[in-house]
Amino acid sequence: MYITSAAVVTIAAVYLTLLIPETKAATPQIISRAQWGARAAKRRSPNLTMHPAPYVVLHHSTGANCDTQAICQLRIRGFQNYHMNSKGWADIGYNFIVGEDGNIYEGRGWGKQGAHSKPFNNKSIGICVIGDYTNRTPNTAAVQAVQRLIDHGVSIGEIKNDYKLLGHRQTWQTACPGNSLYTMMQSWPHWAPAA
Ligand SMILES: [Zn+2]
């Protein structure tokens, strides 16, 4: 039993050594609600009724961008206050938020209905890029963060393999996610010309 235990430990150690770098590469760091100083939601968001989500809907926040975590967190707390105080929503409307600091921030998170893309809230993951992308595209850090987040969602079974990527303007009468970002995203994997 001695030898067996030692062998098991050795095998486990080798396995973990091999496994850990792979896991790290595949799992993007997501800044949690606690980390960015979220308020508690007024009530629990309902689960998506179509799961894994068949759609990803992209937004821009309009207004100022941010390229440091401190400023991005400040902006996100502002969105949450606006959504809860002025719009009367239960929580920040987006599932995730991405900044030009290259970070991904947790909003309502995976598997939950947001308040971002009526009538797609029950079947989509809503991602907002902080800033106004009417006349310029988001930087590489933000674009890569969006892609890492979507790829991760697919890999953990939260987003369908054959998901459709839409701009908010495809689901509602709005200019969101801005002309430049909307043009850019049409070259991204899974962008669909129609829902
Ligand atoms: Zn939008």
From TrEMBL:
Disulfide bonds join C66-C72. Residues 1-25 form the signal peptide. Keywords: Disulfide bond, Immunity, Innate immunity, Signal. Pfam families: Amidase_2 (PF01510). GO terms for biological process: innate immune response; peptidoglycan catabolic process. GO terms for molecular function: N-acetylmuramoyl-L-alanine amidase activity; peptidoglycan binding; zinc ion binding. InterPro entries: Amidase/PGRP_sf, Amidase_domain, Peptidoglycan_recognition, PGRP, PGRP_domain_met/bac. Residues 41-178 form the N-acetylmuramoyl-L-alanine amidase domain. Residues 28-172 form the Peptidoglycan recognition protein family domain. This is Peptidoglycan-recognition protein.
